[in-house]
Amino acid sequence: MKTIGRYEKVDLKKLNLLGLKVKVDTGAYSPSLHCHEISINTAGTEVYVKLLDSNYEMYDGNLRTFKISKISEVKSSNGSVENRIFIKTTITMFNKDYEAEISLTDRSSMQFPMLLGRKFIQDKFLVDVSLEYQNR
Known about the structure:
Layout: E1 2-4, E2 7-12, E3 17-24, E4 32-40, E5 46-51, E6 63-67, E7 70-75, E8 81-93, E9 96-105, E10 114-116, H1 118-121, E11 125-127
Parallel strand pairs: 1-11, 3-10, 4-9
Antiparallel strand pairs: 2-3, 4-5, 4-10, 5-6, 7-8, 8-9
């Protein structure tokens, strides 16, 4: 297994987000990605979002459409529970693609636009919190 640090950079090629800074969070269960203007189509099969926001250089302001993988309750770090929409995509680290199910949520008050949770990390990486940005 590769060793990663508490902060990393990943590519979400299908979402056109390259070199995205993420926080590795072993306390979080699943990966989550910052977006805003989240809405679901009337059939409940697709979600419309704007990924990230103007605080991030990769923000393009375009409304994007994704097939919903699932909607599930997620407990945030502050203890509140919310229903979150999950999509399936690929996360690239160390030149290898990993399938992942990520939740879409407003992380505008957070330093990093994405979290990597333990469901993604498990059986792939070891975390050394004294390190940063091992995936270059």
